[in-house]
Specification:
OB fold (Dihydrolipoamide Acetyltransferase, E2P), four-stranded mixed β-sheet, 9 helices, 2 domains, about 280 residues
Length: about 280
């Protein structure tokens, strides 16, 4: 019971982890013992635990994609009650199913409180998230209309909406719906769009004077090529992959933007990974 070794399927056993939040660390021993009682987990499974503003959110993902038995389901619900878990879900490969929903997991982004859907994308640490948000918002002296691409649940969208109206684009419907509910009364417009397959073109991007994009590790090659042709005065890129970021920044710079700053943020303790915020201007 522990974490995977680097570039390996081997599991390194742990008894404690100083890099995680105290509420999650306190659950290591109970989860270790409890997971051995759930037959449907098999010999190989992943358990994700997220600390939200309303409590812990847990998802069990068996490698064999087995479904829990009725007894398993009763034990999982009882575990959630015993340890005051906000939500406990099971994902057998067909989408996560909540087995215990005692409270709605929520996260605050700027002044908004967002109800987190199952499998919501979040930054790995609150401290890292705050550093990213501060770097992005701090780089914008003035804006009239902002595009937030690959917006997730609104980590950057809602803080940016305190500067100027924001159009947030995200490809996962559940996260778009969560943003839309939280956006009531705020200058935020949400769009469900797969930017990898259907990037905003230069005509659509011309509506914005500031463009922010935070893609997955694969980067945003097609979207970056379109951004390079956009007239926006500022582009801010956020990435957890320096290699794909460098490729995307090259595309944008070739379109006439100049790279003003690059800020590395070490939000992955004891790992070689790094988050980066890059600012470009015309």
């Amino acid at each position: 019971f522990g974490f995977r070794a680097p570039r390996s399927h081997s599991v390194v056993d742990i008894a404690e982890c100083p890099a995680i939040r105290p509420a999650i660390a306190a659950l290591i021993a109970p989860l270790r013992a409890f997971s051995q009682t759930i037959g449907a987990l098999g010999r190989n499974a992943e358990i994700s635990v997220t600390e939200t503003d309303s409590g812990l959110d847990i998802a069990f993902r068996p490698a064999a994609n087995d479904e829990p038995t009725l007894d398993d389901r009763e034990r999982l619900a009882a575990f959630a009650d015993a340890h005051d878990i906000a939500r406990l879900a099971w994902d057998s490969g067909q989408g996560a199913e909540p087995l215990a929903a005692r409270r709605q997991p929520r996260a605050a982004f700027g002044s908004a409180s967002v109800d987190l859907p199952l499998d919501a994308f979040l930054q790995p640490s609150l401290e890292g998230e705050n550093a990213i948000v501060g770097a992005v918002t701090g780089a914008i002296a003035k804006a009239t209309r902002i595009a937030d691409l690959y917006a997730g649940c609104g980590t950057l969208t809602f803080p940016l909406s305190g500067i100027a109206p924001v159009h947030a684009y995200e490809g996962t419907q559940a996260m778009v719906a969560a943003m839309r509910r939280a956006a009531a009364g705020r200058p935020v417009t949400t769009h469900c769009r797969d930017l990898a397959r259907n990037p905003l073109n230069e005509t659509e991007l011309a509506a914005f004077d500031t463009i922010v994009f935070d893609p997955p590790r694969a980067g945003a090659r097609s979207q970056a090529a379109a951004i390079a042709r956009a007239p926006a005065a500022m582009v801010i890129a956020v990435s957890c992959n320096p290699a794909t970021l460098a490729r995307d920044l090259r595309l944008i710079a070739d379109g006439g933007y100049r790279l003003e700053s690059v800020l590395p943020i070490d939000q992955f303790p004891w790992s070689p990974h790094v988050e980066i915020v890059a600012v470009l201007k015309r």
